[in-house]
Known about the structure:
This protein is an alpha+beta fold. It has helices at 57-60, 67-78, 101-117, 124-133, 137-142, 177-183, 206-215, 221-227, 230-240, 263-276; strands at 2-11, 15-19, 25-45, 49-53, 84-90, 146-150, 154-155, 164-170, 244-249, 256-260, 281-287. The strands form two sheets. Strands 1, 2, 3, 4, 5, 6 and 7 form a seven-stranded mixed beta sheet that branches. A four-stranded antiparallel beta sheet has the order 9-10-8-11, with helices on both faces. It binds 4-diphosphocytidyl-2-C-methyl-D-erythritol (CDM) and adenosine-5'-triphosphate.
Amino acid sequence: xxxxxxxxxxxxxxxxxxxxxxxxxxxxxxxxxxxxxxxxxxxxxxxxxxxxxxxxxxxxxxxxxxxxxxxxxxxxxxxxxxxxxxxxxxxxxxxxxxxxxxxxxxxxxxxxxxxxxxxxxxxxxxxxxxxxxxxxxxxxxxxxxxxxxxxxxxxxxxxxxxxxxxxxxxxxxxxxxxxxxxxxxxxxxxxxxxxxxxxxxxxxxxxxxxxxxxxxxxxxxxxxxxxxxxxxxxxxxxxxxxxxxxxxxxxxxxxxxxxxxxxxxxxxxxxxxxxxxxxxxxxxxxxx
Length: 288
Ligand SMILES: C[C@](O)(CO)[C@H](O)COP(=O)(O)OP(=O)(O)OC[C@H]1O[C@@H](n2ccc(N)nc2=O)[C@H](O)[C@@H]1O
Ligand SMILES: Nc1ncnc2c1ncn2[C@@H]1O[C@H](COP(=O)(O)OP(=O)(O)OP(=O)(O)O)[C@@H](O)[C@H]1O
């Protein structure tokens, strides 16, 4: 039995620079990952199957459309005789939440299939299958901090960043990514004039690094707040939390994150928020 984690993806920044002629939006995003998330295992064998359990399993769906199965079928189409097998997904991350849960599950499936078949992690067919499965899947393959560009397919070098103590909040309202991009109202081929993405490199001290991240934005935040106004409340609660250094939405929402100076400050804030809003999903995380 092979096993791997599928962590949440957090867009520390998400700049939309235009809309390509293929309809996808061109973006620049600094992506980091949490430690915890979903867990995926594979018992290698000839037949592909998926069994899902866990608190958010019902929302993820266990049909043929599940991204674990889509990624696996795509890789099998590229590699004759690929060993497949029985996947078990323990689903914990909120679904349609802007933290790439399904994309991370798909990437985890590709990593397990690579292991089961003796493929090198850098095998181009893994990347191609990831790309064909969804815009966020390539960055989730390595699951390490880096810049993501293009529609998500162009990945910068791995970055060594300070570990950021954080609180994540999802208010329980699913948000459909396609709708949020649509709300930007950009025409294919249209570019956006907006301040450039801050230059992010490895090894910056935490204070400087955070100042650079603060100069960035999430260009989907306004559209998502219109679609799900509770995001405005989430951001206000995070920004009002004692010790919050920066709060922003991830991806197309509705999950938002706040960065704190220490894990202890994050844990204290999370406890207070849980008491205030028991219906929200509130998690501490070390973003890296
Ligand atoms: C918003 C982000 O989460 C940021 O990391 C991603 O760009 C979205 O990644 P994703 O959910 O894996 O996206 P996909 O499942 O490939 O696409 C969902 C829909 O979002 C829109 N989409 C997605 C990515 C992108 N660069 N431009 C887009 O316009 C398209 O309408 C697409 O039909
Ligand atoms: N394994 C999976 N986990 C979660 N959702 C899945 C999975 N497979 C398919 N889906 C479907 O994918 C859609 C997007 O779910 P997901 O949780 O990946 O969204 P997201 O967090 O907004 O992703 P992103 O940040 O990449 O836009 C949902 O409609 C869901 O039903």
